[in-house]
Amino acid sequence: MSGNLNLTLKIWRQANRTSIGKFETYKVSNISTDASFLEMLDILNEELQRKNQEPVAFDHDCREGICGACGLVINGRPHGPIKGTTTCQLHMRHFKDGDTIVIEPWRAKAFPVIKDLIVDRSAFEKIQQAGGFVSINTGGVPDANAIPISKEIANIAMDAAACIGCGACVAACKNASAMLFVSAKVSHLAHLPQGKVERFERVEAMVKVMDELGFGSCTNTYACEAECPKEISVRHIAKMNREYFAAKLKARNKD
Amino acid sequence: MGWVTRAISSSLGKKYIMALSGLFLVIYLVIHLFGNTFLYAGKDAFNLYVETLTESSLKPVIRVIEVVLLLGFLIHIYDGIRLTIGNWSARPNRYAVKPANPQSTAASRTMWLTASIVFFFLVVHLQQFWYTYHYGRIPGVTMYDIVVGTFRDPLYSLIYLISVLLLGFHLYHGFQSSFQSLGLNHPKYRSLIVIFGRIYAVVIAVGFASFPIYFYLMGGK
Ligand code: FES
Predict the structure, then answer these.
(1) Which of A88, A135, A211, A251 is the most exposed, having the fewest neighbouring CB atoms within 10 Å of its CB?
(2) By alpha-carbon position, which residue is closest to atom 1 of ligand 1?
(3) Is the residue at B97 inside a domain?
(4) Which residue of A lies nearest to B14 if distances are taken between CA atoms?
(5) How many structural domains is chain B composed of?
(6) pTM
(7) Does any domain span residue B204?
(8) Taking CA atoms, what residue in B is nearest to A251?
(9) Ligand 1 centroid to A93 CA: how many Å?
(10) What is the ipTM of this complex?
């Protein structure tokens, strides 16, 4: 079904990291219900440019739900009202004619606003760099099934690996905690034989950096799981809790 | 031993401490509730129970337990304050639209609030019963007399009632949350923990709430 929407947008505008932002109200008309949310913003920006006004800065890249760049808080919900969907995959058919839509950036101390709706998510990269990888040389492509991994374990690891690092978990959490993201990375690698080798160093290093960057601490409200566009389960947080505990008891370091 | 302090000051360490101290208090509440049910067995039974704890040869053991209990409370409170402050500062700018928080329970989002109210109640409660019994009573007045006398006061009974209901609310989230924090989440037993925790919270809240209601309605008999 297609039709056209007239909408009122309240968008967070902030010139740079240090300036104080505020909401501006814009009207857009004739938006196709087939348009994506970002296309709707593109239309607004074209109009703003025609009027010689500064377009709204928002982050995006793949526009197919895999890069994690496009996080926006739409009417109080990271990535908008539809479960398991990124902002770029959100379609305007989920809105009604005459709606007012409030669009804000992720809000967390560890994700400072760079401009308008764009936040600096390099905190996630720092956490990844601390240990979210396997540091052995893999050499050539190994034979399939040379390392047996049960289907069940492969599924769990794959579910965790679906994380696109968008930061919706931080945005959704009342404590701005990054534990769903970090646990997805930890759990993904800890389940697989290649990742198991460095599991203790990994979880210790990643948690350490996560804490230093000023993310909050999880209080198990589980809002993150509901807002995650990849529907990563909080079971991975429990897995990380176990990994960290085991690391403290068993890792061969004095930390 | 620096690694221990570092471990328990990490975000995950704080969760472990919260969970372990919380579960310790969860067990204590069961014992406390069980002891209180002697109130329903009548004046003599309840006084015998209290005197067995406080005046028999058990006394030194109870004193040690009291200290451990106090430590349990202090650790839980201290860790809770540390967590809450850290978590508030992790989001210095609030959202304009109140977050929808799907899936999260109201209990999970108001832990600091229910905790603060229960804490103030705890202070009043200790003063009213523990302190009065040990240091502020006229000889011959028994614990049963103190309890009955206290619940005759509608204001105190109401404070007691509201506080234990909020405590139940706190436990409603806290019970299952402790297990998640300790990494004990498996599809096999997760729902069992959640359901058991909810029943536990209701039993504790209703159990403790029954005392002020009963004694207030009995009019101090
Ligand atoms: S733009 Fe890549 S996930 Fe939305």
Answers:
(1) A135
(2) A63
(3) no
(4) A217
(5) 1
(6) 0.93
(7) yes
(8) B3
(9) 19
(10) 0.91
Tokens coding A144? 């399939």
Q: Which domains does chain A have, with CATH numbers?
A: 4-104 (3.10.20.30), 122-254 (1.10.1060.10)
Q: What is the pLDDT of residues B103-132, one digit of tens each?
A: 999 999 999 999 999 999 999 999 999 999
Site of tokens 């950096």: A209
Per-residue pLDDT tens digits for A64-90: 999 999 999 999 999 999 999 999 999
**Residues in chain B closer than 8 A to A251 (CB atoms):** none
Query: Residue B74's domain is classified under what CATH number?
Result: 1.20.1300.10
Residue B98 domain-assigned? no
Q: Do B102 and A226 touch (CB under 8 A)?
A: yes
**How far apart, in Å, are the Cα atoms of A194 and each of A138, A191, A243, B103?**
9, 9, 16, 34
Confidence of residue B219 (pLDDT cuts 50, 70, 90): low
Please determine, for residue A27, whether its predicted confidence score (pLDDT) is greater than 90.
Answer: yes
Residue B100 falls inside a structural domain? no
Name the minimum distance, in Å, from the CA of A144 to any CA of chain B.
Answer: 30
Chain A positions touching B176 (Cβ under 8 A) are 220
Burial (CB count within 10 angstroms: exposed 0-12, middle 13-18, buried 19+), residue B47 = middle
Going from the C-alpha of A149 to that of each of A136, A137, A152, A161, A187, the distances in angstroms are: 19, 20, 8, 15, 15
Beta carbons of A241 and B20 less than 8 angstroms apart: no
Q: Which domain holds residue B7?
A: 2-91+106-217
